[in-house]
Design brief:
286 residues; alpha/beta; Rossmann fold; 8-stranded mixed β-sheet; 15 helices
Length: 286
């Protein structure tokens, strides 16, 4: 995995992030979702590096091998703003003042927050399989609550940890034949670590509170994402079923928007790496 990439811990202030990085050229940072780690990008990162990009793949705070900050009453230690600040510090520590950011699933919320909070740093934004947190919550209906019930279960105190840690493999699943053996091993180590499971749940708890409030403040102030933005969603996942007009949901949040379907299930970086890398490359070259 990640042949030719360096791997290290980087001190970004409040936390240390575990990161792999390699390639040369304009920088792009790839942000994983729940419950994956940075290794979910192991098929995409080399493709982007081979086409002239410096590619940076961190474990987000709380995930994988990165630091797990102490839990706060308001869950702000797991906010997307805190995670975005980490990524900004990471990229600066690696010598990149401006860079593109790609986020999948929970990582897409970090990427979005980074583009909103640090517009001078982010050159391009790619979000995969998501709409903004505030939009998802405000549009919640029976279909969304049934399909994405885990958002609300994970927000409960104590009980989700007990349920997941009773049998992490049964809870999360995962197939090494699909994911790749090394990626699966990294992911499985994470989901069996109680501290990581708690931190991943804190991500969701922050989502319903401080992250929603941050989105509300942006909308009230009229702030929008000013860099070119590409929104992609998996054709064999449920995002378009729940939000038939995905681009319409994103339009009020962006100024330069394109997007569409990609032929994949939810874990697109593992299931359709060639198509995903091709779409990202074309977007960054535009």
């Amino acid at each position: 995995m990640f042949e030719g990439f360096a791997e290290q811990y980087v001190d970004v202030g409040e936390v240390h992030l575990w990161v792999r990085h390699g390639g040369t050229g304009p920088a792009v940072v790839l942000l994983h979702g729940h419950p994956r780690t940075h290794t979910t990008w192991h098929r995409v990162a080399p493709l982007l590096a081979s086409t002239g990009h410096t590619v940076v793949c961190p474990d987000l705070r709380g995930y994988g091998r990165s630091s797990k900050p102490a839990v706060r009453a308001d869950h702000a230690q797991a906010s997307k703003r805190a995670m975005a600040t980490d990524v900004l510090g990471l990229m600066r520590a690696l010598g990149h003042e401006r860079f593109a950011v790609v986020g999948h699933d929970r990582g897409s919320y970090v990427a979005t927050r980074l583009a909103l909070d640090s517009p001078r740093a982010v050159t391009h934004l790619v979000v995969l399989d998501s709409v903004p947190i505030l939009e998802a919550l405000e549009r919640t209906d029976a279909a969304f609550a049934t399909a994405w019930w885990h958002w609300f279960f994970f927000a409960q105190p104590g009980k989700p940890e007990r349920a997941i840690l009773a049998d992490p493999d049964a809870w999360y699943g995962g197939d090494p034949a699909v994911m790749g053996q090394e990626n699966y091993a990294d992911y499985r180590a994470a989901i069996h670590d109680p501290a990581t499971v708690v931190a991943m749940l804190e991500d969701y708890r922050a989502g319903l509170g401080v992250d929603r409030a941050a989105d509300e403040a942006d909308r009230a102030a009229g702030r929008r994402i000013t860099c070119p933005t590409l929104v992609l969603w998996s054709s064999r996942d449920d995002l378009e079923d729940l939000h038939p007009d995905v681009l319409g949901v994103w339009t009020p949040w962006t100024t330069q928007l394109t997007g569409g379907r990609i032929n994949s299930g939810h874990h697109v970086a593992e299931e359709a790496p060639d198509e995903l890398a091709s779409r990202i490359n074309a977007f960054l070259a535009g």
